[in-house]
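dumping the sequnces here before i forget
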Amino acid sequence: MRHRHRNRHGQKLGGNSCCLYYAQDGRQYVVASAPEVGILKSLGIVENAVIQKKLTYRMGGPVLLKVDSSEIAIGKDFAEKIEVRG
Amino acid sequence: MASCHDVHEDAAVYHKTNKILLMGNPNVGKSVFFSQLTGLQVMSSNYAGTTVTYTEGTMELGGRRYTLIDVPGTYSLDAVSEAEAVAVRFMESSPLAVVCVLDSTNLERNIKLGLELQRFNVPIIYALNLVDVAQRHGVQIDAVQLAQELGAPVVPTVAVKGEGFDRLRQELEKVVSQPGFKPNFPAQIGDQWQLAKQIAARVRNSVSGELSFFDRLGSAVLQPWPGIPIALAVTLASLGVIVQGGKTLEGILLILVENALVPFFATLFSSFIPEGVLLNVLIGEYGIFVISFEWIVALILPYVFMFYVVFSFLEDSGFLPRLSVLFDGIMRKLGVQGGSVITIMMGYGCAVPAIIGSRTATTRKERLIISTVVCFGVPCISQTGALISLFASFSPILLVLMLLLSLVVMAAVALILSRLLKGDVDPMVIEIPNLLMPNGKAYLKKLMLRMRNFALDAEGPMLIAIVIAAVVKETGLLNFVAGYLEPLVSSWLGLPREAVMALILGVVRREMAVAPLLAIEGLTALQAFVGGTVAFLYLPCLSVFGILAKEFNAKVAVAIGLSTAVSAFIVAGVINQVAQLVM
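..and the predicted 3d for all of it:
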């Protein structure tokens, strides 16, 4: 999985910044970059936003986040494009 | 047809002078406000997308009548989406006042929209909703301070329980009774997101709260364990309630129909109409006054009613978005996303609202896939009711097999189309609403509205089908057509000649492709299943055909119709031939 991830995104895991999908569950992160998508912006998933990653669903499922006080689920393909700092 | 589900934009509404707008984020309980404030029948839902279009109602304040408009829920007013564009248009159409519903459990984002609304310089009353849920989560909001921060009245409410509406009405009346009232909002400095967060932090206090059973259930359902078992249990329980409730109602209604209604009309008509074709058309075996009662009243209506009893409850409770999250992984592998689970479930009621509901899909490709999946693999509740009756005299295994077939067809259609069609399907982004006990008033209104829609939408085509049935059967036309279709029906599908009636009527409505099979005596279990399979896959009904042509185009409607019909004969025929070989 780790290998595939690095190939697809050309990024190392465990560094300063990694994509939200592979980030550890149950921790707080700061968004480093997020795709320019209206709905993500509206829900507050923008650069420098503080988010809590609660859960990653298996088998290509979404990630569950807490942004401010609301719970938001984001599909894998978006979650892979959101970069977060630990 | 399907007129009640139609969505049309009435430009005149923008020019009305006595407008009050109801605005807010999606899932804040806005529709419950609407039904509480107007007392009109209205759809209210807990999940994003139901209010793609606005709802309009009359509201009385201090003896005067105003038009209350339930504007589509939006997260912002950037006009990036269709709903946001509509919301902006409404704000610019000089309304008298705005009721902005704020969700106390998601304060930051709700305050941000509340601040955005202020740039239009229209008086705003803020309704701070879900204060009870927030309190249980250990959050208390200082409404007085929030009112100071926002420079406008803030009324705490618990919409589902009807709390806070008296004060909301008073505040609203104060504003609208002063012509030319101008709001006095504080100047906004800096980024609205930051400002919203600062305000939220200032007005929010921690209190000790105790989560309710529903709150804990809401979190539990989101975890794969125990979420998936709970989701399956709820689905099975829903199915059980629909089937058992439907059967019970069916039993009661059948007694009424067979012992009272049909004999009454039989006696009435035979008293002044001589025996012959006309009398048979009216009260013969396929007589209009026989099958319209037996099929519609006794067989179809109970299941439609029970479906909406259960579905509306699940919808208003906030359960469905959780299903979307749990099943997103699977749906993604099929080429769609978790949000489409809701649309597909809606299709188990009727395909027409499901196809309209698919507007929430962000790309045309996704919309097309979901609509086609619903047309192919999702039997509507009328048809399900008829199938349940058909299989009842055999074994419940047939029903389970049909369900499996439905799942396989859905998966196959989604997989094929997602590879065939050009374009993309956007990943799921879904906000999870609180799990709540639905509001009784809003729930009952919604149920009534849905039953009324069903009656209005389905009645016409059903009566057409029944009149065709009576005429075709009693005039001998059936035997004539059956002669031509003999090879297909008898040799390939292994069905008796009378089953041709199902093919003729199935063009009009889906359950009518099943109902004639009920009247055939001596049907084997295999014949029932094959007949059921043809019916299940056969043409979408006339209303669905119409909505496909309208929402997409005639080409799409014809393509879906042709491919479902062809696959119906292929799949059912193969099932028959294989079963014959094995048995």
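The CA atoms of residues 14 and 89 of chain B lie 8 Å apart.
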